[in-house]
Amino acid sequence: MSIKKIVLKVTINCQKCKTEVLKAVSKLTGVDEVTVDGEKGILTVVGSVDPVCIATQLKKAKIYAEITSVGPPKKPDDPKPKPTESDKPKPCQPLPPCCNRCELVAVSYVTYDDGKCSIL
């Protein structure tokens, strides 16, 4: 199988979601490189792995994924000159540590036992 660059759109809301995505994909055999862009929600995988296997693995981890593109990886370009301070990208906002989807919710119940049983 040849080496491919696979781009998937995933839902990443927090740092924990990002870690779960990386853990799920890095377990697959044939993966050479994995990158995640949390702001855009894009997962890029380079390697000789089937795109459907990646989507299936993410589905098992309860993460929705949509395959955007599959193709050959880009060849390395010539080294670029170092950027000046005015050309540097602005720092991005870090992801929150946890989101509503990741948080555990405590559920409790109260039993009313007054000794009587009634069926209405």
Question: What does the model show?
Answer:
With 120 residues, the protein is of the alpha+beta class. The protein is built from two helices and four strands. It has helices at 15-26, 51-60; strands spanning 4-10, 31-37, 42-47, 65-71. The chain has a four-stranded antiparallel beta sheet, with helices on one face. A hairpin with a 4-residue loop joins strand 2 and strand 3 (42-47). The mean pLDDT is 80. One of its GO terms (biological process) is plant-type hypersensitive response. Residues 3-70 form the HMA domain. It is a peripheral membrane protein.
Summarize the structure.
The protein has helices at residues 15-26, 51-60, and strands at 4-10, 31-37, 42-47, 65-71. It has 120 residues and is α+β, with helices and mostly antiparallel strands.
Strand order of the largest sheet: 2-3-1-4
Number of helices: 2
* Gyration radius over CA: 22 Å
What percent of residues are in strands? 15-25%
**Oligomer, anyone?**
single chain
Number of strands: 4
Q: What is the residue-averaged pLDDT?
A: 80
Helix content: 10-25%
Report low-confidence residues grouped into runs of 5 or more: none
Sheet with the most strands, sense and barrel status:
4 strands, antiparallel
Order of helices and strands: EHEEHE
- Which term fits the overall shape? elongated
**What would you call the structural class?**
alpha+beta
Termini separation comes to 66 Å
